[in-house]
Write a structure and sequence with these properties.
The protein has helices at about 30-40, 60-65, 95-110, 130-140, 155-170, 190-195, 245-250, 255-260, 265-270, 290-295, 305-315; strands spanning about 5, 10-15, 15-20, 45-50, 75-80, 115-120, 145-150, 170-175, 200-205, 275-280. By secondary structure, the chain is an alpha/beta fold. Strands 3-4-5-6-7-8-9-10 form an eight-stranded parallel β-barrel, surrounded by five helices. The chain has a two-stranded antiparallel sheet with strand order 1-2. The two termini are about 35 Å apart.
Length: about 325
């Protein structure tokens, strides 16, 4: 396993992080989640990412139980707040009230005294940024989090948040965007700004929700998968589930084969090749799934291989910086 600095902080994270969105508490029960976490630790993964809203708060509970007995100082745990955790008007967003209540709930579910990074899961346009950052600062000073991070913030929002954090004496060290071979919207604006500000990326969906494993075809969909329609066809509502995208992904398989690795390994290695990336977050519903993704830390992609990947994908790659996943209202 490779370990990289998180932003300009002194803390290292494992280049592969285990996330539990859409797994723990949904498709994965406690015993299987514990097995996946155990395998991750065996492979050298020390960084674990979750959020209060995942699986209706169950994901944090399951992760906390899976990590019970693990030396706390030897792991890095990241969680988030913003999305609804209840039915009340204040059970969402980044108000001081919700942030303070959310960190306490997260710590209780995780069975921990602190998290290493506490993240704003989205930008809250209904709350003054000064209120949000002030609450984060109080959480850090109380010892409930070491650092703060953001997820899916635009470049202007990141700059404003970093400036306020610095004025409050705390460290905004990470950005958690969607980033993969197909979705590169952070490259032109977010990454250069973060390099300037001492912020690094902890990327979600490096496999484009499974598309970059190569398991989906334009005319073949694994039964029971999230993108399988009732008649066995393809659900095409998702941006990656388009025939032209899947046809292009097929062209990546010979590139991976020439390198002697599975396509999933190539896809994660591609994300890690970006110098502003500290970690790629992968999920697992079975322990053995982690074996291929962890191999990505040993795969160095040369310029020729990167050009072959770009040529194979062509114009299905999304690069528009305006596509950062923001929501104008709390959802």
């Amino acid at each position: 396993m490779e370990y990289r600095k998180l932003g300009n902080s002194g803390m290292y994270v494992s280049a592969i992080a285990l996330g539990n969105w859409a797994t723990h508490g949904e498709t994965v029960d406690q015993d299987l989640a514990t097995a996946c976490v155990s395998r991750a630790l065996d492979l050298g993964i020390t960084t674990f990412d979750t959020a209060d809203a995942y699986a209706g708060t169950k994901a944090e509970t399951i992760l906390g139980q899976a990590l019970k007995g693990v030396r706390r100082e030897g792991i890095e745990v990241m969680t988030k707040a913003y999305f609804p955790t209840g039915t009340g008007k204040n059970d969402r967003g980044l108000s001081r009230k919700h942030i303070m209540e959310s960190i306490n709930g997260s710590l209780r579910r995780l069975q921990m005294d602190y998290v290493d990074v506490y993240q704003a899961h989205r930008y809250d346009y209904e709350t003054p940024l000064e209120e949000t950052m002030g609450a984060f600062a109080d959480i850090v000073r109380a010892g409930k989090a070491h650092y703060i991070g953001v997820s899916e913030w635009t470049v202007a929002e990141i700059r404003a948040g970093a400036a306020l954090a610095a004025g409050l004496g705390i460290r905004l060290v990470s950005s958690q965007p969607q980033y993969n071979m197909l979705w590169r919207v952070i490259e032109s604006e977010v990454v250069p700004a973060c390099e300037e500000l001492g912020i690094t990326q902890v990327c979600w969906s490096p496999l484009a929700q499974g598309v970059l494993t190569g398991k989906y075809g334009a005319s073949s969909v694994p039964a029971g998968s999230r993108f399988s329609a009732d008649g066995g066809g393809l659900k095409t509502e998702h941006k990656f589930m388009q025939p032209e995208v899947l046809e292009r992904v097929e062209k990546l398989k010979p590139i991976a084969a020439d390198l002697g690795v599975p396509l999933a390994t190539l896809a994660v290695a591609w994300v890690l090749a970006n110098g502003n990336v500290s970690a790629a977050i992968v999920g697992a519903s079975r322990p053995e799934q982690l074996d291929d993704t962890v191999k990505a830390t040993d795969l160095v992609l040369d310029h020729e291989t990167l050009e072959l990947i770009d040529g194979a994908l062509g114009d299905v790659v999304e690069r528009d910086p305006a596509k950062v996943e923001s929501f104008l209202q709390r959802v």
